Amino acid sequence: MTKKAFYIKTLGCKVNQYESQVIRENFLKQGYIEAENIDEADICVINSCTVTSTSDSKSLRLIRNAIKQGKCVVATGCMVEGAELDLSKFGGVRFIVRNKNKYKIPELIGGPRTSRFAPVRGKQGVGISGLKGHTRVFVKVQDGCDNVCSYCKVRVVRGYSRSRPLKEVLDECTTIIKNGTKEIVLTGICLGAYGRDISTSLSTLINDLCRIKGDWRLRLSSIEPKDVDKDLLKQFQAQKKICRHLHLPFQSGDDHVLKRMRRPYKGSDYLNIVQRIKDAVPDIAISTDIMVGFPGETEKRFKNTMDFLNIVRPMRMHIFPFSKRSGTGAYDFKDQVNSVTKKKREDKLVQLAQVFTNEFTNNLRDKDVEVLVEDKRSRDGHLQGYTGTYIKVYLPGPDTLKGQFVKRKRL
Q: Taking the complete model, does pTM exceed 0.85, yes or no?
C-alpha cells in the first residue's frame, strides 16, 4: 500500500513553528512520508495564525487553495480557536483541530470521524529531535499568557500561562544538541512567565541548559521588559552560551497609548529597564516590536514614540499597524486611526529602524565576530549566518563551513 504524503504550512510565531515540527515528527512516526511541496501531498495541514486580520486572510487563502487542489485539508492553529469561530469559512476542510489537540493530528485523521472537529484520544506526543537542514531550532517551553493587553487576541485563544516541566525541556534540548543543532531558541507566548506555575524560573532553566555540553549556543525569543529581572541578567553575565540579544516588545513610547493598551509601563519605566540591561551587559543588542495607529494615537503621541526610540536606538524593530481583533478590549475603541495615517507612520518608523540597524552594524566593523553559518546560501552564492547579537553576515567559503561557528572580521 502506498504511504500517504503530508505537507505542513505554518503561519505566525515561533511557538507555531515549534508545534508544526512536533506534528511533522509525529507524522513520520506514524509511517507517513513528507512531501516537498503541496502539489505532492495527500494531506495538507494549515497551522494558522490570528494575531492580525491579515494573518486570518493569509490562513484562509492557504486553506482554500489546498481545498481547490483536492487535498485532505486539516485546519489548526490560533485561527480555529475562539467562541466566534465561523464554520462557514471552512467549507471543504476535512478536519478542524484545536491547539490543545494539534500534536495528535497524524493519529486523529486516520481514525473514525463523527464531526468536523477531530476526536481526542490518549496522551498527546510532545517534543522534537531536531530540524533537518536548520542550524537553529525553536523549543517551546511555555504556552498561554496571563497579561491583559487590550489589543492582543493571542491571550484569548491560547489561554492562561502554562509551563512545560523543566526536566522535559532539558531532555529535549539534550537530544537536539546531540543530533547536531548549534542554536536553541527558547520560545513561548509569554516566555518570561516560564516556571511561575511549577515552582521554578526562566533563570533556573537557562542555568541548567547551559550545563549541557557541546558546541552550541542559546538564544531567547521575545520577552516582556518586566520579566528581565536581576537573576536573568546574572545569567547573561555568567553564561558564555547565551546570545547577547534581547527582544523586548515596547509597542509604544507614549504613556497615554501604553495605558490604553493596558501595558504595565510608562515610557520612563522602559528607559530604566533598558539602562539596567545595558549596564549589566554592555555589548547586548536590543530589538523590539512597535505598533502604529493604536486608537487615540495622535501625531503628538506618535512623536513621543519616535522620541523614545531615538533614545533607546534598538538594533532592529518589528513595526506593524494596529488591527482590530474580536474579543479584545480595544475592539470597540471609537477613536480609530485611518489606514493612510497608519501607513505613513509605519513608513517613518521603517526608515528610522534602518538608521538604527546601520548604526549598530557599523560599530562592528573591523571587529571579530562569531557567525553561525546556515545551511542555505544567499541568492548570490555567499554563505550566510547570524552573530550572537542577531546581525546577519554574508561571507565566502566552502560548504564544509555550513552548520559551523566561524570567526570573521566584519568589514
A: yes
